[in-house]
Amino acid sequence: MPITKSAKKQMRQNIKRRLYNQKIKEGFKSSIKEFRKLVTDKKIKEAETLLNEIFSKLDKSAKEKVIRKNKASRLKSRLSKTLSKIKVKGEQTIPNNPPDSTGQADSKK
């Protein structure tokens, strides 16, 4: 336990800061979990809107030095990558040229 007056004050400040940082981290971590759930459920529109909120939370936490700037960038990159992957998979399931009556897609001649 701290003995000097300044050490006691420093401990009080550290407790307040730790609680504040935990609150902010819980905020974006829960949003990320929700985003990943939306992606697995293939709800693309909802995931896109939530992704914008997550980006702002990550940027704010990096600005306030709760997390490092590179960690925020890394998380943003990975989340947008997962969303783009599911978008591509969704487009691949619907073919561009539907098959003709013979069951074959148009072939180049």
The fraction of residues in strands falls at under 5%
Straight-line distance between termini: 83 Å
Helix/strand-derived category reads mainly alpha
The helix content is over 70%
Q: Given the structure, what is the number of helices?
A: 3
CATH level-3 fold name: Methane Monooxygenase Hydroxylase, Chain G, domain 1
Mean pLDDT: 87
Second rung of CATH, namely the architecture: Up-down Bundle
The domain tally reads 1
Q: Could you describe the 3D structure shown?
A:
This protein has 109 residues and is mostly helical. It has a single domain (11-90), classed as Ribosomal protein S20 (Methane Monooxygenase Hydroxylase, Chain G, domain 1). It has 3 helices and no strands. Helix 1 (5-40) runs parallel beside helix 3 (69-93) and helix 2 runs antiparallel to helix 3.
Short structural summary:
With 109 residues, the chain is mainly α. 74% of the residues lie in helices and 0% in strands.
Give descriptors for this structure.
Methane Monooxygenase Hydroxylase, Chain G, domain 1, 74% helix
Task: Summarize the topology.
Blueprint: H1 5-40, H2 44-63, H3 69-93
